[in-house]
## 1
Amino acid sequence: MVATLKDVAARAGVSVKTVSNVVNGYSFVTEDNRRRVQEAIDLLGYVPNIGARNLRKGRTGFLTLAVPELANPYFAELCGLVMNAAAEHDWTVLIEQTGGVRERELTVINAAHRSLVDAIILSPIGLQPTDLAEAAPGTPLVLLGERALSAPVHHVAIDNVAAASAATRHLLDLGHRRIAALGDQPGPHGTAALRLRGYQSALQAAGLSVDPALIVPAAAYSRAEGTAAMRRLLSLADPPDAVFCFNDMLAVGALSAARDRGLRVPEDVAVVGFDGVDEGNYSAPRLTTIAPDKAAIAEAAVGLVRAALQDGAGQPQDVVTPFTLITRESTRSFAH
Amino acid sequence: MVATLKDVAARAGVSVKTVSNVVNGYSFVTEDNRRRVQEAIDLLGYVPNIGARNLRKGRTGFLTLAVPELANPYFAELCGLVMNAAAEHDWTVLIEQTGGVRERELTVINAAHRSLVDAIILSPIGLQPTDLAEAAPGTPLVLLGERALSAPVHHVAIDNVAAASAATRHLLDLGHRRIAALGDQPGPHGTAALRLRGYQSALQAAGLSVDPALIVPAAAYSRAEGTAAMRRLLSLADPPDAVFCFNDMLAVGALSAARDRGLRVPEDVAVVGFDGVDEGNYSAPRLTTIAPDKAAIAEAAVGLVRAALQDGAGQPQDVVTPFTLITRESTRSFAH
DNA sequence: GAGAATCGTTACAACGTTGTACCTTGAACT
DNA sequence: AGTTCAAGGTACAACGTTGTAACGATTCTC
């Protein structure tokens, strides 16, 4: 059905290898042959069989990019950027959704499509440090946004502690004293733990104590969870005057909950998010947020993959990418 | 480096084919051999080479899903659902971004990774009806959300005209008379044309004339374009009292523009969106929208692929999936 | 003008897998 | 005892591609 090199060769009256040489731009082919082969290719609509090529060459031209969920715009945006960065080096990206479930993350790093991809980029959530021993040897692995694992693996991330601290300090600078942290999650190794640490250190640096009642968990980093968690905060006897949300989805949900209670943001309660998604620039009020340089993360991840494939297994790199605090209406107009 | 069937066979003391039989659960293998092979597999960490298997079997287990942009949550949500639906039938989805550019859509349908995928699901934007002649023969093609092409290709979509008409009628029922359409795009075959037709027919059915000044274009279906277009509308000498946006991103942008002008939604101007993305449930005010049943679209698309691969090239199917009008605050509290 | 160097092309093997055909073994029938 | 039969296993070829080695043809060198 589909044309192969053999078909093209037969039509052009040359050997299979000569066609292959034309396709790959190799070595020396007479102008005459090159033209005849090209005509045959166009005529038959020949397209190389990538699987066969991979089989022969060893390199596949594919990368796995595993994220918790595409429905989260942070990851959707990130996927798009990684795809672009990868395309610059002729890689195609195979996106997987893990749902943040440890078991599926394990599948990604130790087996799934191993023979089909040159490397794996994973944004882990449920993964435990010891799990990395299961990683497929020989396939470079780059972890995104997760530093606490601190295992000998390539990492790309912002400084989560510093970023969370900056967000909290921003609220402190505006005069807020009863600042909540929304989005805590179990486990000492997750992103939540790092952001919580940054939050706590900023409070302590300001001479404030940390009130456990103001640290609320979120089962998932979704808008719905943000709303639910914010409702709990607003129902406290002594509710917060500001909330640092561990991601923008939670923050959007929190804004919605505040609005439902008839509270003004930022006058009654200020809100800071984390992720810098486009959506936050259109919420009401517009969302102050920590914006990681997503393009830099994508570039760095692909760069690490390239380096790992060239040099073999060198020292695991730890790339720290920049972030900025974008102040918008959800905190800005507060006057103390 | 990576273990192959041969390595496993050597270790287990059986032939390569017997190992293959164990891996695939085929035919008759003694319990003893099966156990020994399994042990060798576990020990060596054997994983089948998918490329080689594809080469041998013809079927690849991959689908291409090409969407304009992952950053648009409608497509991000849709991708997630298609991936889930595909996973039920052991397919892995290869996501491509076309940017809505005709040339890249053409690449998708006629060449890219053709040999690597069993079928192609495309959400077209720039594609012209005649372009479908370029589609790779032998690889089933399913188009999403696009009916006007009306070529002999599988289609899955809601009834865009009816949906747009329902949205407009909703505004009419609420008493609005000066209703704008936001998001027009050139070309007689695009989604925009269908939604515009539905808008017009609803107006005419109500005995109203269509004011061309109230039909504003949008270069892209993004929040930023929605804001820009809404500004133009609000600057008219005789501005609209309601706006039907051709997608939710435009609507979110429009809400932002209205807010910047100090207008109340829906009291001063009502807004309806299209896509039913989660974000619209958290905007201020919450967005009334046409919500296509995205899960149904995903299921239908994968179902069509399955049918096409089983029956060969049968009659192209035209699947119409349901939608609902979700009324929320951006229109609801209007009293006329 | 004989040998060497270069260009252009080709046959062959191999990548890892599975379908086909065949072989072996033992048991169940006449 | 001879025949049939099925289960269990194997060897081989093939999928489409490219690297290697080798070959024929031309040109260059002294």
Note: The two ends of chain B are 74 Å apart (CA to CA).
## 2
Amino acid sequence: METTQQQAGQPATAERRRRELLEAADRVVLRDGPKASMNAIAAEAGITKPILYRHFGDKAGLYQALAVRHTDALLESLRAALDAPAERRRRVENTLDTYLAAIEARPQVYRFLMHPAEDSHAAERGFDVGLHSAPLLRRLGEELAKVIAERVDLGPGGDELARVWGHGIVGMMHAAGDWWLGERPCARAALVSGLTDLLWGRLGTAGNLAGGPGF
Amino acid sequence: METTQQQAGQPATAERRRRELLEAADRVVLRDGPKASMNAIAAEAGITKPILYRHFGDKAGLYQALAVRHTDALLESLRAALDAPAERRRRVENTLDTYLAAIEARPQVYRFLMHPAEDSHAAERGFDVGLHSAPLLRRLGEELAKVIAERVDLGPGGDELARVWGHGIVGMMHAAGDWWLGERPCARAALVSGLTDLLWGRLGTAGNLAGGPGF
DNA sequence: CAGCACACGTTACTAGCGGTAACTTCGACC
DNA sequence: GGTCGAAGTTACCGCTAGTAACGTGTGCTG
């Protein structure tokens, strides 16, 4: 670690450096989960903390930059599934499956995205409830809402309803996926078809169980 | 803060003290949100940190004790809504509305329940993804699954499907509620009926929007 | 070439966190 | 009276996020 470490050089180093740092941070987060500390990230990048702070402001900034990258990637694949030519139910199934495959393949990333530190001295006096939930969820909800609103005929007030549905469906997908990832109670395909059945109203049409109190 | 502060006394002080501490912690969490520190809680209770640790082991222990209390209370009211005599759709609407009313009335508590510190040196080596989600969500999901499984006829494999639905529905409720609480885009009743429509399969039956790419 | 400016990097620090060790003090019981 | 144990304290550890102050190399400009 002598002072003669960087060969310096290119003037466009700024953006480059930023991406290098992000990739180092990525590695650490992938390895250590959400407990990744700024010190650890700096060490992985071969530098020290203040540089991180110069580039990203604070931890929330770094995390957000990381989250945006991953969220973008996930969103892109989800949009592809949502846009593929198929009947509506098939599209929904494919989208759910894409999401589940993603969180299954890289659970650490998923976990990180859902738990953005949350500290961030926001919440100062007046605790703005609401924005506590992971940005990923909000973004996915809004994106899905947009797709629904522009493609499905929901009558008057449809935009508002589409947003309700967007956030609701995303939440369903998230919670079920989280539970499934933890307990692995069934195959991915079974989860997908179960959720799609739910969305297709099977709860409303299924009969009461004989002998029970009814529902 | 002289040493002659507590009048001591009763031998059954242990349980009493524990409840006093929990109530103090409750007050602090209600005031400071999830950033409530052990120091602050101890101060509010009029004592110092080590006592808290003697009673609850660590922060996670205290938080869990707090969470159990609130979760129990919420669960009870939800169960009441779920058991009230009415047709199925009405029960679902009432349950959703009960949940939303609860988080609307005490958003700080809600926020605390959804963010159980998460630190807890679990996640050691092997980051057990999955259990990161708030215990409240898991518990609600399992409870709902139980209700569904014992009342609705879902055919073979129904128990597994019920769990999928339980967690899915709870997730939907949570995410939509979180979003709604943050943006307040509509009245509570509108959100409830929108979500119920979703659960009753309106997404499957709604027509495509004329002129769009179809969905 | 001198010198200025600036980005890049460092060491060394603060304030606060969760958690603990060691000591004191009080009340009960034999 | 003397001892035992719970309740409570102060003072600390190791860690975190974040910052201030101090080099050091490079390119531009007089």
Note: Chain A is about 70% helix and 0% strand.
